[in-house]
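Troubleshooting entry. The earlier prediction with 6-O-phosphono-beta-D-glucopyranose gave an output that would not parse, so I re-checked the input for stray whitespace and re-submitted. Clean input:
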Amino acid sequence: MAETETAPPAPACTLVIFGATGDLTRRLLMPALRNLRHAGLLPDDFAIVGVASRDIGDDGFRDRLREGVDGIDWFIERSRYLSGKFEAPQTYKALAGLLAPDRNVLFYLATPPSEFAVIAAQLGKAGLLKESGVAWRRLVVEKPFGHDLPSAVALNKQILRVAREEQVFRIDHYLGKETVQNILVFRFANGFVEPLWNRDRIDHVQITVAETVGVEQRGKSYDATGALRDMVPNHLFQLLTMIAMEPPTCFAADAMRNEKAKVLDAVRRVEPADVVRAQYGAGRIGGETVKPYRQSPDVPPDSTTETYVALKLAIDNWRWAGVPFYLRTGKTLAGRRTEISIQVKQAPLALFRGTPVESLPPNDLTLHIQPDEGVTLRFGVKVPGPTVKIDGVDMKFRYEDAFETVPSTGYETLIYDCMMGDASLFQRADTIEAGWRILQPVLDAWKQEGARALPTYEAGSAGPKEADDLLARDGRRWRTIRPNEKDRP
Ligand code: BG6
């Protein structure tokens, strides 16, 4: 987590991007690099080597980069391209020819996940991950990291056969978001928060990642993945651990990751009965008609993949015992919002005997991650008038009102941190595996029961009724998901 005003430029290095002709390079990596250069955080001695199978040559690669992003001439001068098959040893021989042994190198796996292990193994065989003297060699792995517990364990094993854990940077792009990093600042830089943050004061926590988009052109890969694997063990569990972790002794990578690991270890394995899955049907969002998921490109018409999931988790430790954490995420919902809502226990009611409990507004502290970035605190006030009537009002902090925003893809911090060797915003092997371990019973149960329990929800709604029932069982309700002005269908 860099403090940009005081941060130095990264040391001289080469960024080798596997899968460099793909979407991620143009859409995220190049704009992020450009922003980093703007902020003075890249070294003058910086180079890019793109590796992919297409035979397009240096010029073809540079043209491709130029098409995707403006203002990157500085990078074009420093970029090379290597065409080769990921499984072929010659590719790595040729790559070694472009990298001096004493050069710092960041190998970025921006490829389909099926290639991760192959590339890591070949890099290892070619000796490209060997660190000689002061030069470092690092491996950045994109998500998804495995598709269940055994595959994640196997991938970790394969990678750790050729690299040390400190050389591996497993990306979860949620950790690059300002507002996600702000969760820790909000919790640990404000003295009033800690006394609230426990089972004595908190009734329950809701974590919502609602999207208005459908699967768009990703039908093929999404259909093999589904909402649970796509979002929960990574993005939602990151939010969960940042909300629930104990204060680390410092912000060093292992201090932070040890605390996160402890939270995941304390999460009870999920009971399939505490999970709701559903798939979107037809509907309307922002005035536009949305076709059912099963009619999306490359999705089989009888697909049983879930596009929505809601679950209830329990954390068995002294801080959180008895406080349910409800998580939900879905595609084509009524509004786009990622938020964490901390619902505080009701005040003792003695003073307001005449007021029905349900009309006393619960204190709700909401951390808005996106698209409205900020924090809201809801509390009760007296409605003006001769009698005592209570209503809930919101006190709001909005980032855009308080600060000038800087252009950001969310990848800037992550790339810079890799170059600086700061792994605090990256996933460690054990936390990845702990996430899958929590969910494995659900994956097993779903496999057994097939599609029997797959309800549908209307596109543009707040999700399936079954998700409401999950909370209603405990006498609780989800926060409403409605469109906001920043929503785009
Ligand atoms: C990705 C998922 O990791 O995160 C996508 O694969 C999802 O399905 C995306 O849409 C959400 O990211 P963001 O930054 O838009 O919240």
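This one parsed fine. Residues 13-142 form a domain with the Rossmann fold fold (CATH 3.40.50.720).
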